[in-house]
Structures are given as structure tokens and as C-alpha cells.
Amino acid sequence: MCWAIKLVRGVMDKKRLHTVLEQTLKVAPPPAQSRRMMHMWMHDAHSGSTRGDPQAVALLEALRLEAELRVFDGTMLHVLSVASQSIEYWHLGAWLVSRSINPMSIMPPMVSLYMSMQRDVPYFRYSAGYSA
Known about the structure:
Layout: E1 2-6, H1 14-25, H2 35-47, H3 54-64, E2 73-79, E3 84-88, H4 89-101, H5 109-118, E4 123-127
Antiparallel strand pairs: 1-4, 2-3
């Protein structure tokens, strides 16, 4: 097992991400549905299910194209307060859609995502059989 620090820098195509997100919002589950339903909807898009919505699939593809978002590629272990888990693009997609639907959001999700990527915060990659 080995721990490595890796910084990713680049320029996100915010316009493309915003356009794809807007298109996805048109077909997303309504806000009255649970967060679990949103995760199931995005997971269907991620897993290639026949129930996967083409707009959700397009959002996930747009997220995968961004080098700065590789932390969501499923090979990273995100350490939470009591456990760790991998977080994938469909988790990020569900979060972005949920934040966009929520009228109480303090900041638009693409702005908060972009701002979080601008910080000089290294992340750790746990590489035990995972390839970069």
C-alpha cells in the first residue's frame, strides 16, 4: 500500500458543464422526491441501465471529461468521520442536480464546484491495486 499526494490543475469548461446541467434539470426527478431517488436515477445513468436517462448520461460524460474532477472517478477513498468510501461521478452528478433544484441553495452548484476546485488542497490517492 502506498499513499501519494497528487494535485490536479486545469481549466474546467464551465459553459459546457452548465449547459449539460441545465438540460439534465429538465428531466430530473422532481424536488419532492427523496434524495435516494435522485441517487438511484443517477446510478442508473452511470451503470448503463435501460432506465438511465440520456441527459443524465450526458451529464456524467461531461463530468468525466474534466481532469479536475478525477477525484470522483471511483479510485479514490474519501475519508469520512468514521469510515471511508469511494465517491464516483454519479454521486457528484446527483449532488449537482439536487443543489440546482433546491431553491434554498446559497450558491449555484457550478459556482461552488468551481470554487472548490480553485483551492490548493491536495488530496490523497489510496493505491492498492487501483491504477491512475
